[in-house]
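anyone seen this seq b4? input:
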Amino acid sequence: MEPAYLVSVLRFDSETDRRVRPQMQRIRQILDSPGKTDGFPHISLVPSKADDCDDVIQRVHSALVGHPSLEVRFSYLGYFGSGVVFLGATPTAALLTLHRQVFEASRPGEDAPWIEYYRPDRWVPHCTLAMEISKAMLGGILDQVSGMVVSPIHARCIAIEWLKVQRGRIQRLKRMDLS
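predicted toks r here
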């Protein structure tokens, strides 16, 4: 059985969600399939093993209680070699500090999934638009999507949410609103 993992994510206000979700849907249409996406617009912060979900959530919640919401600016369309097309967020001191705080409170182990990509000073803040895009399809996808992405996109991050992911299924465990 595929192991489960926990991911802490930043959630957007409804206006940001309304602007980003159609871009995710358009890519799926271009691919002519439902495709693989993260399901809803967000910024992934830290992956952890799911064997201590409650402890991780409690530590992060305690560390960030009363944390203000924050503004994020998506300023470019990007691609990771693993087949992920994304909106890239311009790193700011507030965003990088929040990520470091969540990372430190989460205490992900060395065996957490994708941990090398999510360590402070290595993390690329982004909102995934689509996953598993082949290199052969990449040029066409980027050509079509780049015309519909109006840059920059200003977003407000209003909550941290914890998701348990297993076999492609996402279960929302808890949400902490940012003030």
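The domain at 5-177 is CATH 3.90.1140.10 (Cyclic Phosphodiesterase; Chain: A,). The chain has one domain: 5-177. kinda curious what u guys think
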